[in-house]
Amino acid sequence: MVTWPWQRDRAAARTLKLRSRGDFGDVSRVDFEELAPDIDTFLGQAAYLQLGYFETLSQLIAPTPELSHKESLSLAAGAALIKHRGLVKLIRDRHDDPLEIMLPFREPLDAFRRETHGARPLETMLTVHITAGMLDDFYLALAASYGATGERAAEILRADDDRQALTQIIADAIASDAEWKSLLALWGRRLVGDTLLIARGALGPQTLDAAEEKKVEPVFTDLLAAHSRRMSAIGLDA
Hints:
This is Ferritin-like domain-containing protein. It comes from Microbacterium memoriense. The chain is an all-alpha fold. It is about 65% helix and about 5% strand. The chain has nine helices and two strands. A two-stranded antiparallel ribbon has the order 1-2. α1 packs antiparallel against α5 (about 120-145), α5 (about 120-145) packs across α9 and α8 runs antiparallel to α9 (about 210-235).
C-alpha cells in the first residue's frame, strides 16, 4: 500500500466539479467541498502521470516490429510528452520548481506503472489507453477546483492524446484472435481497481466519512461508465 503525500495545509476550501467531456457525455455536476487536494499535489501528480505515459509508450517502440505500429506508439508518446511539458510550464509560471513539485509522487506513481505494465505489448497499450483515459477525466474534474490555473491545466489535458491508432491495433488483434479478446478483457478489468486507487489517492482527505463518500460516489460511477464505453468501443467487455 503506497502512502500519498497529500496531507498539506490548504488555505481555502475548494470545490471539485465533474464536467461533461468526451466519454462522459451529459453527466451531472457533483461538488466536493474541501476534498480537492492542494494545487501542488494536483499539478505534481498530473505532470508526473503524463511523463509516465510517455516513458511507457516510448519503451514499446524498440521491440515493436511493424513500422506502422512504431509510428502509432511514437505519436501517442509525443502527445503525452506535450501534455507533460505544458503542465511543467504551468508549474514554472507559478514560480515553482517542477522537479520539487513532482518528486513526492515519483515513487507511488512508478509503483502504479510497474503494477499495471503488461507482460505483452498489447496489454501495455491497453493499460495506457484505459488508465490515461480514466485519470485524464478525473484530473479534468479536479481542475475545476483551481480557478484560472485549473482552466489552463484542463486545456492542456483536453489536447489530443493521439491514441486512436493504438486502439485500432488492439481492435485488430481482438478481431483476428479470440484468445486476445478474452485475455485483454480480463486485463482491462484488472486495471480498474488500481486506477481508481490512484484517483482516490488524489483527493485531499486520507479517509472519508459517510457524507463525503456519498459525494465521491457519483464521480467514480461516471469514471466506470466511461471505462465501459472505452472497452466496448474496441470490442471488449468491461
